[in-house]
Amino acid sequence: MPELPEVETIRRGLEAVVLKKTIANVLVNKVSLRLPIPKDLAKKLLKQSIQRIERRGKYLLLKLRVGTLIIHLGMSGNIWIKPKQHPKTKHEHLIIEFTNQWSLRYKDPRRFGLIDWTDQDPNKYQAIKSLGIEPLDKKFTANYLYKIVQNKKTVIKQLIMDNKVVTGIGNIYASEVLFAAKINPLQPANQIPLKSYKILVSAIKRILLLAIKLGGTTIKDHTDSYGEAGKFQNKLQVYGRKKQLCFRCNTELITTKISQRSTFYCPRCQPNGSSH
DNA sequence: AAAAGGACCTGGTGGC
DNA sequence: TGCCACCAGGTCCTTT
What we know:
Elements: H1 4-18, E1 23-28, H2 41-45, E2 50-56, E3 59-64, E4 68-72, E5 78-83, E6 92-98, E7 102-107, E8 114-118, H3 126-129, H4 142-149, H5 156-161, H6 171-180, H7 194-213, E9 254-258, E10 261-265
Antiparallel strand pairs: 1-6, 2-3, 3-4, 4-8, 5-7, 6-7, 9-10
The chain binds a DNA duplex through residues 1-3, 5-6, 34, 58, 72-76, 91, 108-114, 127, 152-154, 158, 161, 163, 170-173, 216-222, 239, 259-262.
């Protein structure tokens, strides 16, 4: 479910409540996520406090005085802050209780997410060290993408969703940024001129920043850490608008699959063959 | 080496 | 009401 703006929304919400609070109790569900939750996690966390909360792509890094808790929300994950006495609900796989009245609840019905622990620099952690550049980093530029693309035949939508190239853009925002840049999602990446990459890169930055500002996109169940829905779904131009008309030119939008993921675009605003 | 396809899961929806 | 097929904000592994 969550892409960069949703994860960032959750990061900011957590930061406001749990920073520097002492951990009094930890409850771990035994079921496996993408990996098993470390058996000794409670021991590692107990009596510590979270010093900083960072984000790398779609990963949250909760940095303690000793070690880092690494969290990924997969497709259906969320983190809520609830009063400790609030009854445990289904699929809450990790509950961290603080010495005050609050608790952090990690919930992930589909269990594609990840909860892990590292004593080392998290940038050396397997899943994180292979990540590409952050899209909101100044070093993420048209020239950067253009250079990478020269030996890639993949279609542009797959390229911008490739976490090794640029991390954090998922299925919703991929369709949205390509519409904004008037690039057809099926266009081979190496056929797109630099000029179009400039438009694309600025569309990516602009749309991600706006989505963060609006608290992310709530299609089904994304919320911030207090349970509030996002507002970017009201700004979606193509994603989820099956058989509806383009807001810009009134043409019926096309829905297709690219590597098994639903893809939406306007055949008139985003013609194939001409990337502008 | 790169690309395609399947696997991993639960839950919601729409058709019959 | 039930059953079934299909869909979903992601990643990883195997096969071509």
